[in-house]
Amino acid sequence: MKQTELISRIRELRTDAGYTQIEVSRKLNIQRQTYCNYESGLRMPPLEIIVALADLYGVTVDSLIRGTDTPAKAPADPLAALPKAARRLLADFFALPEDMQREILEFVHFKKQLFKRRGK
Fold first, then answer.
1. How far apart, in Å, are the Cα atoms of 52 and each of 56, 81, 119?
2. Are residues 54 and 87 located together in one domain of the fold?
3. In the chain, what are the helix, strand and coil shares in percent, each to the nearest 5?
4. Which range of residues forms the domain containing residue 111?
5. How far apart are CA 60 and CA 7, in angstroms?
6. Got the DSSP string for 7-54?
7. Are 94 and 82 in contact (CB under 8 A)?
8. Quick one: 116 and 82 in the same domain?
9. Residue 87, pLDDT score
10. What sign results for the dihedral spanned by CA atoms 39, 44, 47, 49?
């Protein structure tokens, strides 16, 4: 494995997904500086972090290391067909506590009703 390929790949996947380094470090439950060291090449991520990154971006470990765009699985999941931004929005939504999810759904319902009234 070439370290430079892995470094550029994790940076590319992060930016394509619209994540900041802080967001990725939180999702991996590691310090921001540790993640920055991975992207800058100062440290090589351990295998468990490489696996977690592959899971986060929906790619295989092999594709993460080699730089190919092989999906982790055949898209049996209907969400796999959604754009990255929509998948990220859903992931962020489901990461919230239930009470906050309800508030967001109520807000969306409210805005939808306003939109319908405007259209008439």
1. 6, 21, 45
2. no
3. 70, 0, 25
4. 77-120
5. 16
6. HHHHHHHHHHHT--HHHHHHHHTS-HHHHHHHHHTSSPPPHHHHHHHH
7. no
8. yes
9. 84
10. negative
Q: From CA 114, how far away is CA 57, in angstroms rounded?
A: 36
- Domain identity same for 6 and 60: yes
Largest CA distance in the chain: 60
Q: Does the pTM of the predicted model rise above 0.70?
A: no
Cβ neighbours for 53, distance < 8 A, ≥ 6 positions apart: 10, 13, 24, 28, 45, 64
Contact status, residue 47 vs residue 38, Cβ threshold 8 Å: no
Residues 97, 62: one domain? Answer: no
pLDDT tens for the chain, 120 residues: list them.
Answer: 466 778 888 998 999 888 999 999 999 999 999 999 999 889 999 999 999 998 998 888 888 887 666 554 554 566 667 788 888 888 888 888 899 999 999 999 998 888 888 875
pLDDT at 23: 92
pLDDT value of position 114: 87
- Cβ–Cβ < 8 Å for 34, 43: yes
HSE (side-chain half, CA atoms, 13 Å) at 116: 6
